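A protein record in our archive is deliberately plain, so that people and models can read it alike. The record that follows is passed on verbatim for readers who wish to inspect the format.
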Amino acid sequence: MKTATLSRKVHKWLFLFVGVQALLWTLSGVYMVVMDLDFIHGDHLVENLREPVSGSGDLVSTESLLRDFSSVESVQLKSLRGQPYYVVRDGDGAHLIDARSGIEISPIDGGLAKALAEHYYSGELPAASAELISENPPTELQSRALPLWRIDFDDRYGTSFYVDPNTGALVTRRHNYWRAFDFFWMLHIMDYEERADIHNPLLLVVSILSLASVLAGLVLLFYSFGKRRKETSLSPAEARA
């Protein structure tokens, strides 16, 4: 009976400590399983991510780009809103070049950032606001490199698009269901800062304590059934004694 008493105490006190987290694991796990990941990623919100480049006969030659920029690492021809552009990457970063005039247009301003976001957006609403984020990024950007234009839409999803001012590319999109998913993910892995480290010490400690509580409960279950079998084997008189 000493083992049963010890197991009962371990199970009770440990579960008092980890019970709330066990409930949060369950609730967050249900949300993450029920929600479709493509929906969470915001695939339904975007279009025109890969446009074919047309009319490439009158473009500035790449040889001239190599003369204008030093230490060129790569040159990419892409289409933005049906117009051809070069993205030149060198030691100073990325540069967006009008492929017909050869004029650099990066970093793009808020008006062009909004126009590009509306082009990427699959809905009908115009962009509501544009904000250049160069420091103190929101947690939903995680480790994305700054600066980025944040373009918000007043739709039912609370959609935000993040556009690179140096390339015009849509870096990522966020909406309220994604934000809820990210919140539940934080609760699930118990990383309340970066929301990315699934090997953090707090999660490890609570997981071990939860396992110990479950094992103690299994021991109690074993003794409970053992006691019940013993009582049923007694005669009525012996059981009342």
In short: The beta strands are 74-80, 83-90, 93-98, 129-133, 148-152, 160-163, 170-174. The longest helix spans residues 2-34.
